[in-house]
Specification:
This protein is an alpha+beta fold. It has a single domain, classed as 3-Layer(aba) Sandwich (Glutaredoxin). Helix content is 28%, strand content 18%. The chain has four helices and five strands. It has a five-stranded mixed β-sheet, covered by helices on one side. A hairpin with a 3-residue loop joins strand 3 and strand 4. The chain is globular and about 45 Å long. The relative contact order is 0.19. Bound molecules: FE2/S2 (inorganic) cluster (FES). FE2/S2 (inorganic) cluster binds next to helix 2.
């Protein structure tokens, strides 16, 4: 297999991947693994999409209803080992791993943690900070 040539030019890299130059304050991962999917991970993800996009906080292309200046990056992820206690939601740079997140918890996570900077300790099971 022929590997692609490594691009050294940082400006070209930022052009090819604009997120590399974006001012992201939080990166939120929502687990979409098999076990989390069984406890409605898709509804949790959709609730984050709605809460963040309605507030103009979700980073991304305008053509997709997102904000190119948005401070929050929302990403799907695979299993992180919280399979029996999903839905797992991870928030960085704080390194807070929320467990048993339900659709009804999302607004609180957005308002208190992502906007207000206050961790929701009743849901936080693991912290790397
Ligand atoms: S499937 Fe979500 S943590 Fe394992």
């Amino acid at each position: 297999m022929k590997l692609p040539k490594i691009i050294e030019d940082k400006e070209k890299l930022r052009f090819l991947a604009p997120v590399a130059g974006a001012e992201i304050r939080h990166h939120v991962f929502v687990c979409g693994g098999t076990s989390c999917s069984k406890v409605d991970a898709s509804s949790v993800k959709e609730a984050f999409v709605k809460e963040l996009e309605n507030r103009g906080l979700r980073y991304g292309k305008e053509s997709k209803g997102r904000n190119p200046e948005g401070p929050i990056l929302l990403t799907d992820c695979g299993s992180v080992g919280f399979c029996s206690i999903g839905v797992a939601v991870l928030v960085y740079p704080e390194g807070i791993w929320y467990a048993q997140v339900r659709e009804s918890d999302v607004r609180e996570i957005v308002e208190k943690h992502l906007i207000g900077g206050e961790v929701i300790w009743r849901l936080a099971l693991k912290s790397f900070s």
